[in-house]
Amino acid sequence: MTAAKWRKIRKKIRHGSSYFLLSIIGIIFIYPLLFMFSASFKSNAEIMGSMNLIPSRISFENYIAGWKSAGQYTFGHYIKNTLLITIPVVALTILSSSVVGYGFARFRFKGHKLLFGAMLSTMMLPNAVVIVPRYILFNKFGWLNTYIPFYAPAMLACSSFFIFSMVQFIRGIPRSLDDAAFVDGCSTLGIFIRIILPLSKPCLTSMAVFQFIWSWNDYFNPLIFINSVSKYNVMQGLKLGMDATSGIVWGPIMAMSTISIIPCVIIFFCSQKYFAEGIATSGIKG
Amino acid sequence: MLEKRQREGYLYILPWIIGFLVLQIFPIGMSLYYSFTNFNFGTEIGFVGLNNYIKIFTKDKEVLNSLKITIKYVLMSVPMKLISALLIAMLLNQALKGINFYRTLYYLPSIMGGSVAIAILWRQLFSIDGAVNKVLNLFGIKSIGFLTDPDVALLTISMLSVWQFGSSMIFFLSALKQVPQELYEAARIDGAGKVNSFFRITLPMISPMTLFNLIMQMINAFQEYTAPAVITGGGPLKRTKVLAMTLYETSFSQRRMGYASAISWVMFVIIIALTVFIFATSDRWTYYNDER
């Protein structure tokens, strides 16, 4: 009786201290994001003067000023550009990675092992090594300052990471389903479209989420392949806004920064269900 | 029949084969070739042998400095990131009510990845009159030049990477969940304490995941560009000017493509060497459950 009671109390203390630790560290963790959000409503003086999270007055002036942006384009223009890059890239990535993943997972052909190994090893290939020759190549094709340098690698399944997670996922789908469809006269393409794709939804979703977030937040590649401001993405627009003023006026920048992370936050929360499991088998980076 | 199936297999992986050859193998080969030339964008290509490499290691203080800083950055950010990820993963690996809320909370910073917005935020938070110094002042601590002190700036940038430990955390969490509870029970009966079972059970059991996290994070950290470029621009005194920044400058501002290719190959070889080294030593510190 007393021993059981004692254990119960100890458990409560343990749980309580876990909650306490998680909450304290959690507040420190989330503070920067809350700070950014609240700063987007504050005047410059208030941003620099106080660390209070609740602004003394709610004003949308920063959003209006930031949206007008520094250059000749509004921030909306950069958002439109980013969507023009991101949406096709996500669609192409899903399409190419799932087709190639299906090929690797369900077919045995000469050199399968070698090709699969080659595919895996490119996961470790640093972008830095291929970026210069790719730039020269794309320049020859006349693709610089267009969005094709983003579409082409997506269409050609250059992210081995997604192929690999697709292969792993398809391997988990019972082969007997394929066989049954095959007996019923389904072609391999039919099997892919009617059986594999619908069953791979969790994997496809987490792939879409990751590709969206990476593509949306990409700064390095646009920096290299895009050189006219009219084609800048959101990240370049943000950097431009920051560089435009010598003494940084933080308010509008914080407002646009907030806007720039909202799509990622929304997608993250919408895909929660798939995300937690999906990432353990697919996601990396970050 | 079998022939047809083989052909179909090739057909499905065809997009990847094209991408692999045109956008990966060909560029790797070209970049190796360029690294032995004095290729400047728009001029004739001249073969210079090993000169680019010799210059990097003997004359070019700028590149060597960047290399040193990058290695420092990797050594600082990766271990801190993995240790924090593991600690939080262990706290989250408990049957507590509402634990999913905390998991989401800790993952949230990571979904913004290499966003410029986050780098800008970091620049504001850690500036000399920024929010972090305000908090320190509150406790009577003098303001720290997080971004202006040459000895501190790189650490500040590393903290951003640590803050985004989400994916490592999730990987550790999935590994922790797979450790058989009987092991802990048995250890408890044998009189082992919490600390003891952490070092003798938890760490060995999750070691394959540690290896995976270590390699992936190391490769990513070596290529970091956005954070130092936006937060400090490489300063103060070039003390945060990582290799990716020097590489960008050499290739796309100065257009010295040949020399830049040599720099990128130095980076590539170091990454490969470290990966091989980690794998080679991993036998001693990783434990696979299915051994023997």
Describe, in plain words, how this protein is organized in 3D.
- The complex is a heterodimer of chains A (286) and B (292).
- Chain A has 15 helices and no strands.
- Chain A is mainly α.
- With 292 residues, chain B is mainly α.
- Chains A and B meet through helix 1, helix 4, helix 5, helix 6 and helix 7 of A and helix 1, helix 3, helix 4, helix 5 and helix 6 of B.
Q: Helix fraction of chain B?
A: over 70%
Indicate the structural class of chain A: mainly alpha
Largest sheet of chain A: none
Largest sheet of chain B: none
Distance between the termini of chain A: 50 Å
How confident is the prediction overall: mean pLDDT of chain A?
88
**Helix tally of chain A?**
15
Strand content of chain A: under 5%
The average pLDDT value of chain B, as a whole number, equals 91
Q: Biggest interface and which pair forms it? A: A-B, 90 and 91 residues
Number of strands of chain B: 0
Reading the helices and strands of chain A in chain order gives HHHHHHHHHHHHHHH
How do the helices and strands follow one another from N- to C-terminus of chain B?
HHHHHHHHHHHHH
- Runs of chain B with pLDDT <50, length 5+? none
Separate helix tally of chain B? 13
What characteristics describe this protein?
heterodimer; A: 286 residues; mainly alpha; 15 helices; 75% helix; 0% strand; disordered C terminus; B: 292 residues; 13 helices; globular
In short:
The complex is a heterodimer of chains A (286) and B (292). Chain A contains 15 helices and no strands.
Question: Which SSEs are present, and which pair or pack?
Answer:
The complex is a heterodimer of chains A (286) and B (292).
Chain A: H1 2-39, H2 44-49, H3 61-68, H4 75-106, H5 112-121, H6 127-140, H7 148-155, H8 160-171, H9 175-183, H10 188-199, H11 201-217, H12 220-225, H13 234-244, H14 250-270, H15 272-281
Chain B: H1 2-34, H2 51-58, H3 61-92, H4 99-107, H5 116-125, H6 131-138, H7 153-163, H8 166-177, H9 181-189, H10 194-222, H11 226-231, H12 243-253, H13 257-285
Helix pairs in contact in B: 1-13, 3-7, 3-8, 3-10, 3-12, 8-10, 10-13, 12-13
